[in-house]
Write a structure and sequence with these properties.
Radius of gyration: 16 Å
Number of domains: 1
GO biological process, one term: DNA replication
CATH topology: Nucleotidyltransferase, domain 5
Oligomer: single chain
GO cellular component, one term: cytosol
Distance between the termini: 10 Å
Keywords: Exonuclease, Hydrolase, Nuclease
Strand content: 15-25%
Largest sheet: 7 strands, mixed
GO molecular function: 3'-5' exonuclease activity; DNA binding; DNA-directed DNA polymerase activity
Shape: globular
Order of helices and strands: EEEEHHHEHEHHHE
Length: 192
């Protein structure tokens, strides 16, 4: 993944708001245990949602954070089994996440481990977007941003719950950011 120059106008393609829960924070050693995608129109309206638990082939890591146990993952598919559906969910969209670098790095590693063909496209980081739209804050965590925007966040640290909150944040930002030129933070992604 590499940073690309900022776009000057809001993207005009659908968004795929992605979130992952993982066994830890190290992309070289840890694995995805849950993934979710909320597809949204170019205006930010939710179109669909999809999520899956993922068997990481090891312990689930910090269960006290994400609440996912080894028992929950006992019948979960391996990443290679969900990779075709994930590819379909992301196809033709702008990959969007709150802290895109984290989520994209894990997805890229999992695609590589699954020997899946690379997936190329553009990404949008809502963390960077809210920093540009609302500068001067000390914290830009998903929980803090959701609270400031009045978005309920009942399923924090679950992939679908976090993806739904991020999608709603994106919708609000798309409506409130000035229509003229704005430094939209975009990244060129290669997920493989």
């Amino acid at each position: 993944m590499r940073l690309q120059s900022h776009g000057r106008r809001a993207p005009r393609r659908p968004f795929a708001v992605l979130d992952v829960e993982t066994t830890g924070l190290n992309t070289a050693a840890d694995r995805i245990i849950e993934i979710a995608v909320v597809r949204c129109s170019p205006s930010g309206r939710k179109i669909s949602e999809w999520s899956s638990l993922v068997d990481p082939g090891r312990d689930p890591g910090p269960t006290h954070i994400h609440g996912i146990t080894a028992h929950d993952l006992a019948d979960a598919p391996k990443f290679f089994e969900i990779a075709p559906e994930l590819r379909r969910q992301l196809d033709g969209t702008i990959f969007t996440a709150h802290n895109l670098a984290f989520d994209a790095a894990f997805v890229a590693r999992e695609f590589a481990e699954a020997d899946a063909p690379p997936l190329n496209g553009f990404g949008l980081c809502t963390l960077e977007l809210v920093r540009a739209a609302r500068p001067g804050r000390r914290k830009y965590s998903l929980a803090t941003c959701a609270d400031e925007l009045g978005i309920p966040h009942p399923d924090a640290h679950r992939a679908l719950g976090d993806a739904l909150v991020t999608a709603e944040m994106l919708r609000i930002l798309l409506q409130t950011i000035p229509r003229g030129p704005f430094p939209w933070p975009r990244q060129r992604l290669r997920l493989s």
